[in-house]
Amino acid sequence: MSKYTKLASDIIDNIGGESNVQDLKHCVTRLRFTLVDDSLANDDILKNMDGVITIVKAMNQYMVVIGEHVADVYDEVMSQLKLNPTEKKQKPKVKKGFLNWALGMIMAGTSPVLNLLCACGIVKGIAIISTIVGLSADSGIYALLNAAGDSMFFFLPLALGYNVAKECKIDPFVGFLLAAALLYPTIQGVDLNFFGYTVNATYTSSFLPIFFGLIIAVPLYKWLSEILPNVIKGFVVPVIVLLIAFPLTFMILGPLADATGTVIDGALNFFLEKTPILGSILLGGIWQVLVMFGVHAIPSVMAFYNLLAGKPTPLLAVTGNVCFAVCGTLLGVVIKTKDKELKATTSSSLFSSVLGVTEPAMYGIVIPRKILLLTTCIGGAVTGLVVGLFRMKMYSYTGLGAFGLLGMISPDDANFFAIGLMVILPFIASLVATLFLYNEENEVVNDDENSEKPTKIMKTNDVVSLKMPIDGKISPLSHSNDEAFARGALGKGCMITPENGNVYSPVKGVVRTLFPTKHAIGIVSDDGIEVLIHIGINTVNLEGKYFEANVKQGDAVKEGQLLITFDIKNIEKAGYSTETLIVVTNSEDYLDVIEVDNNQHRHKETIINVIGLGV
Q1: Phi, psi of 547 (to 5 degrees)
Q2: Is the Cα torsion angle 168, 172, 173, 177 positive or negative in sign?
Q3: Residues with a known catalytic role
């Protein structure tokens, strides 16, 4: 059992269970789920889960932001899901548009090889530096370094063909085969005549042509697999696919892909080329906002088209270095904060941000404090200013953050002065802005911009009592069999061993969340107290069986109003515990949350006292 076994299990439970997962990938910090039905995911629980930074919904993906340990968590989640690439699962209820589908395919093709591209890019950077310090470009050592650095970029269509074919649920080596044919050495960059139609194309280090080719190859492969006998289709299908898809791709779809890439290039770089300073400042200033909404991958992936085709890109020069503005903001927080826990968390996030992984810092520290988002955007704009003034570009992908600086070294003119300014000036700008603008004493942390606002503010030592939601015996929350609840990851509260299956409202307020499986309900009281009632352990797996809801999401409820009924006997007979948890999910907003005792109580009797923190 790995240390992420429990976290992976909790994530699976709260995204609607294994049956709700159609696909899963990961990037640098996020688990990117494609769910059958997003509404089955327990957003509030996932956001507050220990080990999860936040959730983001974008590009028809349900993203669970983990941080730098995402690869380990991904491996454990995949192990528990036991996803079978050939298994046909129910399709999502929300139909993807063409743009989302296309971007999904591009990310499926590139994500598995980003680290390899990064490794090769770093080797290319080392090769360039070696010539600057005296190594001859004619030496054998340089030739080997250059070959190693170019290898993944040169043969990239092979990896893309394999990955995209696998994503499309066909034999991945068919995609590999199509790419291999496109890369055959003797047909690169020479005039080939086809009945009077001449094509001169080079597909090494290309990006889009293999994607366009698979648009034909994939449906052709699937159709042939259905109509041909099993005894021959293993070798006949690839033969037919190769004979049809390869010529069409080489002669028609490949040139069309190159033309599309030219249009994309023009669109992405229009402002950066025509007005480099203004365009770079705007892009740098809003970049972390794009990261916040999870759509930053769109321009990044498309900019790779230029980079892989051997064309340096200013776009990645801007976006790849905004992380140093984040570092300045974080250091400012470390200097100013008196909160030891915040100081420790910020220091840890500072290290990962130096390496270009900014999501832990953004979601955990910056975004909840609006002034810090402003100071980070100021630094990001300064990044763009430096890039625009010195016409900086990324020449090779070498990773993020500090490693990414190697990719900024031009083979013709290594401008180390400008590279240094791209680090120092954004860092200083965000640091100074944070030191002047950030005031911890007056800060308002906005954990959920869309949450209901309290109609009444509790003052220091004000006490609000929450009532028993169910008849039964109170026990400390630490006694729960659910580790996330037991360690207080979701807030302070207590556990109840129920006598019957009637659940009543502990407060007067509004139903914020009613889970589709009806095993949990979240209520915001008129005092602003956020209460979660969770019935049973892993009862989400029952998919609503044995549960009945008497209210719906958005309903106003009175204290003591019947909310949910459930069948204790049948739930326990099915092998599930019916222990019921009641927690205050915004416990950090109050001085303390205390259960009254550990005795037997009836519903409507006081169970928890919430003590105000003050205003």
Answers
A1: -120, 145
A2: positive
A3: 27, 534
